Amino acid sequence: MLKVLILGHINCRNKGDEAILKVLIDLMPQGAEIEVITEDLKYDRKYIPERVDTKHVRLLNYYKAGCCQRIRNKILRTLRPSLSLDGNMTFALTQSFRKNLESADFIVMSGRDQLTECYGQISFNKWVTQLEIATRYNDRLFLLGCSIDTLSAQNEKRLKAALLKARFVTCREKATFYYVRSLDESIPCGYAPDPAFLLKPCQPRKDVPLKQNRVSIGMSLSGGLIGYMKLDKAQYVSAWTRAIHDMVQKYDCQIVLVPHVAVPENRNNDYDLSKLIQERLNEDPDCESRLTLIPPDLSANEYKYIIGQCDYFIGCRTHATIAALSQGIPAIVIKYSRKAEGIFRDFYGHTDYVLPIEGLFENKLSGKLELLMQDKRCLKNVLLMQAEKYRDEVRRTCHLMK
Question: Are strands 312-315 and 216-220 parallel, antiparallel or unpaired?
Answer without folding.
Answer: parallel
